[in-house]
Write a structure and sequence with these properties.
19% strand, formate-tetrahydrofolate ligase activity, globular, Rossmann fold, nucleotide-binding, EC 6.3.4.3, alpha/beta, 558 residues, 19 helices, Domain 2, N(10)-formyltetrahydrofolate synthetase, 4-stranded mixed sheet, Formyltetrahydrofolate synthetase, domain 3, P-loop_NTPase, 12-stranded mixed sheet
């Protein structure tokens, strides 16, 4: 059976002018700042005018740990938004923007798939409205101003050995992880070791995604700790006098982007921190705006629920005062088989025993999300190779966990294929069963917060950290940062820090390699295992097959 590719389906979309999509939500044309005919930004002035409106219901879409078999979390998020609109609810989708790194690496795009996509797909997966470029520029402006301050006399007495602000770019480039800058003699500055992270790991990205407005944005940018003196006194971005210019660069990027699904329903696409190395959620301003405009807001959190959902609950909801009404965990029969030990090449063959063996990974996520006081439903993202017996096995397992699994065919059928899930989500959300609470209180000591995540979410025995790391956390507590939540940077493929360990392991430990203070964003990053904040390209990157065809259309982007 021949299927159209995502990009072929997207190219055939019957898009409506973006002003019509905005009108569906009651956004006046003068408050939409168009980027072409099919995408626009929503003005800050209009967003401020919504403050007194009641909020709609917030639905989180998360997933099992990703496998090479594919799960389809964004596809399900988009499909559910269309499905809710299909059954008569005014629903808005909120997802993240795509990073060029994985698009040209191996993960592919971030606009959904099949007949549950957001368009324009090519622009969304490339430069879009330039938000990532603005974030990259603002971040690197601060980097340049730090080195420039030292070059012109260093009146703040920055210790060049204690500069903690790295540089960023929106590309996978392992060669830039650790570098030496300022070589070339007196005229070029003072040589020092530094490195690059990918833009989605930038604290500026996190700040933009957690800020409520431009004033909040500038304050948070000023709060960034960029270096320390020899006496270990912190130096802030406002000390470098960079916060004003950084805010200017981010002025337009701070405004949420509105686009549409294939079924012409509104979608906000704004911000894009990865969940394995950052906090993994779209912007607070987009989510809050959508909640004022729609009855239902469907949003996603990156990678598996152990990363994205935990950070959505413990960082985004905590900081923004959000209270989710329900959660959807996306799983596939194929992924269950892979967790059960089946090789990718053999996934097309029925294997009910492997499905049953792989289900504990799903069960672990169900239990974890329930632990936040949020009702859960499982979406089985359907593949044509799935058999009735395999689907029944997943449904039976989920029922044993006290939840329901619903087969969803939105990839092939759009909203028609996900009506049952939409109805179940409405039932859960309107039941008032949600009693959301974060995993740990603000006042808990930082290392204990890390242990709580490791033990309750990863089901680890303990956290391993050198004395220097524990002492650093205590120093930050003494400096007034003890109330901050923890953002764990770890592999997305496993509950452990070993990407090859599938299923629902216990008895493991979580080694912490490094901790970083994101004072402006408002969290502490704990880098665990071998995870890198600057990814590398795979042996055969997607970039090798991406090209323009004879008609000038993009080929190979997916």
């Amino acid at each position: 059976m021949a299927f159209k590719t995502d990009i072929e389906i997207a190219r055939e979309a019957k898009k409506k002018p973006i002003m019509e999509i905005g009108a569906k939500l009651g956004i006046p044309a003068e408050h939409l700042l168009p980027y072409g005919h099919d995408k626009a930004k929503v003005s800050q002035e209009f967003i401020k005018s919504l403050a007194d409106r009641p909020d709609g219901k917030l639905i989180l879409v998360t997933a099992i740990n990703p496998t090479p078999a594919g799960e389809g979390k964004t596809t399900t998020t988009v499909g559910l938004g269309d499905g809710l609109n299909r059954i008569g609810k005014k629903a808005v989708v909120c997802i993240r923007e795509a990073s060029l790194g994985p698009n040209f690496g191996m993960k592919g795009g971030a606009a959904g798939g099949g007949y549950s996509q957001v368009v324009p797909m090519e622009e969304m997966n490339l430069h879009f409205t330039g938000d990532f470029h603005a974030i990259t520029s603002a971040h690197n402006l601060l980097s340049a101003m730090i080195d420039n301050h030292i070059y012109w006399g260093n009146s703040l007495e920055i210790d060049a050995r204690r500069i903690v602000w790295r540089r960023v770019m929106d590309m996978n480039d392992r060669a830039l992880r650790d570098i030496v800058v300022n070589l070339g003699g007196v005229s070029n500055g003072f040589p020092r070791q530094t490195g690059f992270d990918i833009t989605v790991a930038s604290e500026v990205m996190a700040i933009l995604c957690l800020s409520n407005d431009l004033d909040d944005l500038q304050k948070r940018l000023g709060d960034i700790v960029v270096a320390y003196t020899r006496a270990k006194t912190p130096i802030y971005a406002r000390d470098i006098k960079a916060d004003g210019a950084m805010t200017v660069l981010l002025k337009d990027a701070m405004q949420p982007n509105i686009v549409q699904t294939l079924e012409n329903n509104p979608a906000f696409v704004h911000g894009g921190p990865f969940a394995n190395i950052a906090h993994g959620c779209n912007s607070v301003i987009a989510t809050k705006t959508a909640l004022k405009l729609g009855e239902y807001v469907v949003t996603e959190a990156g990678f598996g629920a152990d990363l994205g959902a935990e950070k959505f609950f413990d960082i985004k909801c905590r900081k923004a005062g959000l209270k989710p009404s329900a959660a959807v965990i996306v799983a596939t029969v194929r992924a269950m088989k892979m967790n059960g030990g089946v090789a990718k090449a053999d996934l097309g063959t029925e294997n009910v025993d492997a499905v049953k063996k792989g289900c504990p990974n799903l069960g672990r996520h169900i239990g974890n999300v329930k632990g936040f006081g949020v009702p859960v439903v499982v979406a089985i993202n359907h593949f044509f190779s799935d058999t009735d017996a395999e689907i029944a096995a997943v449904k039976a397992y989920v029922a044993e966990q006290g939840a329901e699994a619903i087969l969803c065919k939105h990839w092939a059928l759009g909203s028609e294929g996900i009506e049952d899930l939409a109805k179940k989500v409405v039932q859960m959300a309107e039941s008032g069963a949600a009693n959301f609470a974060p995993l740990y209180p603000d006042e808990m000591p930082l290392f204990q917060k890390l242990q709580t995540i490791a033990k309750r979410i990863y089901h680890a025995d303990d956290v391993i950290a050198d004395k220097a790391i524990r002492d650093q956390l205590k120093t930050w507590e003494a400096a007034g940062y003890g109330h901050l939540p923890i953002c764990v940077a770890k592999t997305q493929y496993s509950f452990t820090t070993d990407p090859t360990v599938r299923g629902a392991p216990t008895g493991h430990t979580v080694p912490v390699r490094e901790v970083r203070l994101s004072a402006g964003a408002g969290f502490i990053v704990a880098i665990c295992g071998e995870i890198m904040t600057m990814p590398g390209l795979p042996r055969v990157p997607s970039a090798e097959v991406i090209r323009l065809n004879a008609d000038g259309h993009v080929e190979g982007l997916f």
